[in-house]
Every structure is written in structure tokens, then in C-alpha cells.
Amino acid sequence: MVLLEAIASGLPVLTSNQPPFTEFLAPDQAILIDPQDIDEITQGMLQIINPKISQELVTASAEIPQQFSWGKSAQIQLNYYSDRK
Fold this sequence. Notes:
This protein is mainly alpha-helical. 51% of the residues lie in helices and 7% in strands.
């Protein structure tokens, strides 16, 4: 939900390269990193402050929020958490 709100607000996204994020974000729409790899986190943070990369991410992800309703977003969350049991 927070990522969709960020994208809807025109912000670039840096997030984990694991579900549920990879289920709706492609590598050209967000910087996807291994959350356990400090070097990847550092590199992702450096990339996202680059204005050119940041704008490319914002442009590529702009249509994502239109694909989701509150109901669909809730269902994605329920599916994710029920699969983790």
C-alpha cells in the first residue's frame, strides 16, 4: 500500500526484490534490491537520488496505481500472508 501511495504521489521507489513487490513492480519501475545486502541497499539509495534515474522510474511506474482498487490491493495482501503460513 505504501509503495502504491508513493508511486501515485510521483515518487521513485526503492524496495525489496521479493513478493509482494515483484508481483506488481518491474525492474524498470522501481529499484529492486536484496534487503539483506547492505551494498545493494547502498547502491540503490545512490541510484534513486540520481535525477535521471529517478525520473525514469517515476515515468515507468506512473500507470501502476490505476491498475489497483482497494479491493484488489487487499486481496493481494491476503494472498501473500495466507501463503506464508
